[in-house]
Amino acid sequence: MPKLPVVAIVGRPNVGKSTLFNRLVGKKLALVDDRPGVTRDRREGDASLVGLDFRVIDTAGYEDHDAQTLPGRMRLQTEAAIAQADVALFLFDSRAGIVPLDEEIARWLRQSATPVILVANKAEGKTGDQGILESLSLGFGDPVQMSAEHGEGVGDLFEALLPIIDKDKDEFPPEEEDEDDERLDAPLKLAIVGRPNAGKSTLINRMLGEDRLITGPEAGITRDSIAVDWTWMDLLGRPHAVKLIDTAGMRKKAKVQDKLEKMSVADGLHAVDFAEVVVLLLDATLGLEAQDLRIADKVLSEGRALVIALNKWDIAENASSLFNGVKKALEDGLSQVKGVTVITVSGATGRGIDQLIGAAFEVREAWSKRVGTGELNRWFEHAIEANPPPAPGGRRIKMRYVTQVKTRPPSFVIFGTRVDQLPASYERYLVNSMRRELGFGAVPVRVTMRAPKNPFDTKE
Predict the structure, then answer these.
(1) 3-state SS string for the chain
(2) Which N-terminal stretch is annotated as signal sequence (predicted)?
(3) I want to staple 121 with a disulfide (CB 3.0 to 4.6 A). Which of 6, 16, 248, 285 is the partner?
(4) For residue 202, what are the CA distances in angstroms to 209, 269, 350?
(5) Is residue 457 part of a domain?
(6) What confidence tens digit (pLDDT) does each residue in 170-215 have?
(7) What CATH number is attached to the domain comprising 426?
(8) Is this structure's pTM higher than 0.90?
(9) Residue 399 φ/ψ, nearest 5 degrees
C-alpha cells in the first residue's frame, strides 16, 4: 500500500486545531474544549477529503517556552510533526485576529522547507473579516476561510491541498494556475429567486425542456430549494455546465407566519449563499414592488452577482414604458450598484433564455475578475489625480496604495493616513470609477480603508 501524504495542523493554543482534526478524520478522536492546552502529544489519523486521502497530525498549541518546560517539549513535538509533513495547515482564529504568537509561528514556518497553507478558522459570517485582512501580513497569501466546527469551507481546503499532495493528477498540471480561472470552468451556480408565483419553476422547466419541477397557478408551491444540473448550448453550439437552483417564493417578512414557509424562505436564502449568480425574477404583469428591491438588496449584501429578469413578457402590457420604469426604479432603489443587467424573458415561450444565461456567465466573469497590481495602481493614481481626496479640518487625507485581497466578490483594501475621515461620497466615487475603468460593471465591489499602524509615527 503506498504511503499516504502527511498533513500537519499547527497554530497557537485554542484556535480550533483539534476541531479541524476531528472534522477531517470524520470522528471525534481528539478532545475539544474551550480551554487552551488540551492537546499535548501529536495525534494522527487517516483522513479523506472529497476522495483525497492523507494522514493528518493534530499538534499541540505552539508556545514560545524553554525546551525543558512542558510547553517547550510540546513545541518540540510540533516541530517534529512539521518536519515529517508534506504540507502544514497554519490555523489562526479569524475572530481574534493576528496576535504576536501568530507572527512568531509564521517566522518559524517560513524557515521550514514544508509548504504552508494559511487557514482562517471561525470565519463563518463576517466577524472574522478584519482578522482575515490582518493575516495578509504573515506572508502566506490569501487564507482558506472555513469553520471547522460547522464544516464550512471544506471544499476550499480541498482545492488548496490537492495541488500540493496529489501532484500526479493530470487535471492539475505542475505549473501554478489562478484559482479563480479554474473556477470559471466549473458549472455556473445559478439561483432563481423572487416573490411567490413569479414563474421561477416554469422558467426552469422551460430551460430543461421537461416538467422537472411542479408548477401551477397557486403561489408557494415550491418549498425546498431544488438544484438541477443542466447543459446550456450557446449560440455557437458550445456546451456550458449550469447548476440551476429553484427557490421558494419570498414574501415580505411580516407576512410570513407559517413555520414551514419560514423554513422555506431560510432555505432560499441559503441557496443565495451557495450561488455565484442570482437571477431575481419579476412578474412583468405586476411590475417592480418594494419586496423585489428588498430581495435584490439581500443578494447584493451577500456579495452575489445579480441579474434581473422580467418574466411573462409575452403577456405584458405597455412593454416599453414598463421596461423603462423598472430600470429607473432599480437605479433609484439599488443605490449601491448602478446598471444591473435587466433581461426580458418568458418561461411559457422560452423567449430571452439564451440572453439571460449569457448575461449570467458574463457577470460571473466580472465577479471573479482579479486585476493585476500594475493596472490596479495605475487606475488608483489616475483616480486620485482626477479627483483628489478632501482635506477635512485642513489636514489632507493621503491615499497611498490599493491591493485586491480576494475575488467573488471583488474586494480591495486601500491604505493611507486619516482614511477613517474619508467621506462616503468619495468612497462611492472610487468604487464607481473602479467599476467603470476596471470592468467590474454592476457586480458588488467591496472596499475597505486601512491606516497602517506605525509605532514610530508620532504625527497621527
Answers:
(1) CCCCCEEEEECCCCCCHHHHHHHHHCCCCCCCCCCCCCCCCCEEEEEEECCEEEEEEECCCCCCCCCCCHHHHHHHHHHHHHHHCCEEEEEEECCCCCCHHHHHHHHHHHCCCCCEEEEEECCCCCCCHHHHHHHHHHCCCCCEECECCCCECHHHHHHHHHHHHCCCCCCCCCCCCCHHHHHHCCCEEEEEECCCCCCHHHHHHHHHCCCCCCCCCCCCCCCCCEEEEEEEECCCCCEEEEEEEECCCCCCHHHCCCHHHHHHHHHHHHHHHHCCEEEEEEECCCCCCHHHHHHHHHHHHCCCEEEEEEECHHHCCCHHHHHHHHHHHHHHHCCCCCCCCEEECCCCCCCCHHHHHHHHHHHHHHHCCCCCHHHHHHHHHHHHHHCCCCCHHHCCCEEEEEEEEECCCCEEEEEEECHHHCCHHHHHHHHHHHHHHHCCCCCCCEEEEECCCCCCCCCC
(2) none
(3) 16
(4) 10, 20, 10
(5) no
(6) 333 333 344 444 456 789 999 999 988 899 989 998 999 977 554 5
(7) 3.30.300.20
(8) no
(9) -100, 115
Q: How many domains does the structure of the chain reveal?
A: 3
Let me know: does 411 contact 448? Beta carbons within 8 Å.
yes
Known binding-site residues for GTP equal 11-18, 58-62, 121-124, 194-201, 246-250, 311-314
Query: Binding-site residues, please?
Result: 11-18, 58-62, 121-124, 194-201, 246-250, 311-314
Q: Taking Cα atoms as reference points, which of 386, 383, 426 lies closest to residue 401? A: 383
Q: Are residues 16 and 69 in the same domain?
A: yes
User: For residue 115, is the peptide bond before it cis, meaning its omega torsion is within 30 degrees of 0?
Assistant: no
Please say which residue of 349, 367, 385 terminates a domain.
Answer: 367
Considering the domain boundaries, does residue 460 fall inside one? no
Residue 39 corresponds to which amino acid?
A: T
Cβ atoms of 433 and 402 within 8 Å: the answer is: no
Residue 288, all three cell numbers: 417592480
pLDDT digits (tens, 9 = 90+) for 405-428: 899 999 999 989 988 889 999 999
User: Same structural domain for residues 335 and 278?
Assistant: yes
What are φ and ψ of residue 6, in 5° steps?
A: -115, 130
- 190 in a domain, yes or no? yes
pLDDT digits (tens, 9 = 90+) for 83-116: 888 999 999 999 999 999 899 889 888 888 889 9
Q: 28 and 111: one domain?
A: yes
| Residue 405 pLDDT | 87
Inter-CA distances, 137 with 41, 118, 141, 239, 438, Å: 30, 12, 8, 42, 26
Expressed as residue numbers, the domain containing 195 is 183-367
| Residue at a domain's end among 158, 177, 196 | 177
Judge whether 161 and 5 are in contact, CB under 8 Å. no
